Amino acid sequence: MLLPYHQPDIVEAGIDEAGRGCYAGPVFAAAVILPPGFAHPLLNDSKKLKEKDRNLLRPIIEQEALAWSVQMMDQTVIDNINILQATYRAMHAAVAALAVAPQLLLVDGNRFTPYPGIPHQCFVKGDGTYASIAAASILAKTHRDAYMLALHQDFPQYNWASNKGYGTADHRQAIASHGLCIHHRKSFNIVPVQLPLFGR
């Protein structure tokens, strides 16, 4: 059972990311402020949900939330400042884009760079603890999956429609066969030797 809030009577925003460990594509972050009393029987950590359930919940969250935002940092940013800093930057951008100003940030994980003027608390497995973080995890995941599905149309050889850019066996085999493309994260040392790059 997810908790509806951490501190009652203040405006809390749940924050989570998707795609931090991927070989390709951006890292996405979402911030969500849920209304008091929001509940849905399927709401949970996005990793524990089937894809169809995540896709069912996305429009419900977007319609019912007091405010929500999804932001991304692409592979260029990731390669320039590293994946952890790019994740924090995406999270900060998501908070900045909220239409309602939160008074407390509930962040999934154990580390976070403080956001100016808003206190935060980190929660390991927070996406399975607090409803707002679970909602953020679903928005970050579904928006990122949709983005990778669009990229798949131009780069079908990597099967991003299925693996979403993660380092699955089929993705690693495709890299070995075709090399890296412009959407791969070069700083991740995906292959032992640099393979040719190509783009559109």
Automatic annotation (TrEMBL):
* Amino acids binding a divalent metal cation: 16-17, 108
Alphabetical keyword list: Cytoplasm, Endonuclease, Hydrolase, Manganese, Metal-binding, Nuclease
SUPFAM superfamilies per the UniProt record, alphabetical: Ribonuclease H-like
Q: What residue stretches are annotated with the RNase H type-2 domain?
A: 10-200
Gene Ontology molecular functions: manganese ion binding; RNA binding; RNA-DNA hybrid ribonuclease activity
Question: Which processes are annotated in GO (biological process)?
Answer: DNA replication, removal of RNA primer; mismatch repair
Q: How does the cofactor bind to this protein, according to its record?
A: Manganese or magnesium. Binds 1 divalent metal ion per monomer in the absence of substrate. May bind a second metal ion after substrate binding.
Question: What's its top-level EC category?
Answer: hydrolase
Its cofactor is: Mg(2+); Mn(2+)
According to its UniProt record, the EC number is 3.1.26.4
What catalytic activity does the UniProt entry give for this protein? Endonucleolytic cleavage to 5'-phosphomonoester
Gene3D superfamilies, from UniProt? Answer: Ribonuclease H-like superfamily/Ribonuclease H
Q: Which PROSITE patterns match?
A: RNASE_H_2
List the subcellular locations: Cytoplasm
Give GO cellular component annotations, separated by semicolons. cytoplasm; ribonuclease H2 complex
- Determine the domain of life of the protein's source: Bacteria
Predominant cellular place of this UniProt entry's protein? cytoplasm
- Please report a single Pfam family linked to this protein: RNase_HII
> Would you identify the family this protein belongs to, as annotated?
Belongs to the RNase HII family.
> What NCBIfam families does the annotation carry?
PRK00015.1-3 (NF000595)
Q: What does this protein do?
A: Endonuclease that specifically degrades the RNA of RNA-DNA hybrids.
Tell me what this protein is called: Ribonuclease HII
Which species does this protein come from? Phnomibacter ginsenosidimutans
Q: What is the lineage of its organism?
A: Bacteria, Pseudomonadati, Bacteroidota, Chitinophagia, Chitinophagales
